[in-house]
Amino acid sequence: MLRKLLIGTALATTFAFSAHAEDVKEVQMLHWWTSGGEAAALNVLKGDLAKEGYAWKDVPVAGGGGDAAMTALKAMVAAGNYPTASQMLGYTVLDYAAAGVMGDLTETAKKEGWDKSVPAALQKFSVYDGKWVAAPVNVHSVNWLWINKAVMDKIGGAEPKTFDDFVALLDKAKAAGVIPLALGGQNWQEATMFDSVVLSTGGPEFYKKAFNDLDDESLKSDTMKKSFDNLAKLVTYVDPNFSGRDWNLATAMVIKGDALVQVMGDWAKGEFNAAKKTPGTDFLCYRFPGTEGSVIYNSDMFGMFNVPDDRKAAQVALATATLSKSFQSAFNVVKGSVPARTDVPDTDFDACGKKGIADLKAANEGGTLFGSLAQGYGAPPAVANAYKDVVSKFVHGQIKTSDEAVTELVKAIDDAK
Ligand code: BGC
Q: What does the record give as the function of this protein (predicted)?
């Protein structure tokens, strides 16, 4: 569908602009990095490109998880109006590549040695048909807890190692009159949390089979049912105003001490950074209980479009800057993520970042690195959207039981496949 819609415009755009002209010294970038921490991270890139004489044309589309941004991108591309690059997640890159609208960064990749420095798990999504079509910016991971340290001390809590420990900790916060769990009731946030619940409930093999292989037996198993029951349990610790809340406002509740904990990808740490908070002193980062040793990842990629010739030099400059070792360190320190290259030292990262880098390496080597279904790395967008929809209906009571949730999940994923 996307393919048919886009191929005509791809050809039209290429021909319309193939005349030689002076290089346009501008990078046009579509993204959904609009929170305080995200904007601070993006400024690192804007600064690096400005030093090389490139102007920045920002195309921000608010909305964590990027659904709104991807709708905007589709409209732009269908109109033949390609940005230099767009923030994209996993399977979306492959969809645009299959539609024939992406550029080819292979020459730059060869020159810069990306084949050797970017892990295979990311190359699977940034290389299509042997050509580099995207530059990975980072690796985020979603199976984290972000905890306010002062609240933790006040309630006498300790790191929860199992799901039951976690429930006991949430009970302590509740008894102390603190909101136990900060959640934004938007489908992508709920599903991002559910990714961790499933890994914790079923273990690494189960997560992979269900959410990366889309194995029917696993999707409809008792373990999946139990995962929904565990999710229902967590939702009892959320405050009544959670519906529709933005993810960074949920993070702010933890930063301020209004809530004990948020389950969120490590972009949440970007908000703690922006608020000048220090891990170990002001906040704590733990793996979601029962998931230590595994990493559920997503990676922000800059998908590179097949822009007119006079815009290609700017695109190469953007791609080169994005994968430079110094940028990979400076940007990810601010963003809360870890480098998309394996050869960047962890020296400048805080304790959570150092743990993130070490965990990623161990998971990659040990076969426990899994794509996030909620974050576009488990399955193509249609399946991910079906998943987010079912999880959200369950959280908001439109699907009432875990039995029903499992039935709906299997059906929705089957229909979307
Ligand atoms: C992206 C992060 C971003 C988060 C919230 C995720 O999908 O990977 O970079 O910070 O959404 O906006």
A: Part of a binding-protein-dependent transport system for a sugar.
Compute the distance from residue 15 Cα to the ligand 1 centre, in Å. 35
- Residue 17 scores a pLDDT above 80: no
φ and ψ at residue 126, rounded to 5 degrees: -105, -10
Predicted confidence at residue 261, as pLDDT, reads 99
Residue 10 has pLDDT above 60, yes or no: no
C-alpha distances (whole Å) from 297 to each of 116, 126, 142, 273 are: 20, 15, 6, 21
Average pLDDT in the 135-158 region? 98
Residues 6 or more apart from 75 whose CB is under 8 A from it?
A: none
Judge if the beta carbon of residue 65 lies within 6 A of ligand 1.
yes
Which atom of ligand 1 is least distant from the CA of 32?
Answer: 12
Ligand 1 within 6 A of 204 CB? no
**What does the angle CA 181 – CA 161 – CA 150 come to, to the nearest 5 degrees?**
50
Phi/psi of residue 266, each to 5°? Answer: -75, 5
Ligand 1 pocket check for 64: Cβ under 6 Å: yes
pTM value? 0.95
The average pLDDT across 75-104 equals 98
CA distance 226 to 296: 20
Which ligand 1 atom is at minimum distance from the Cα of 247? 5
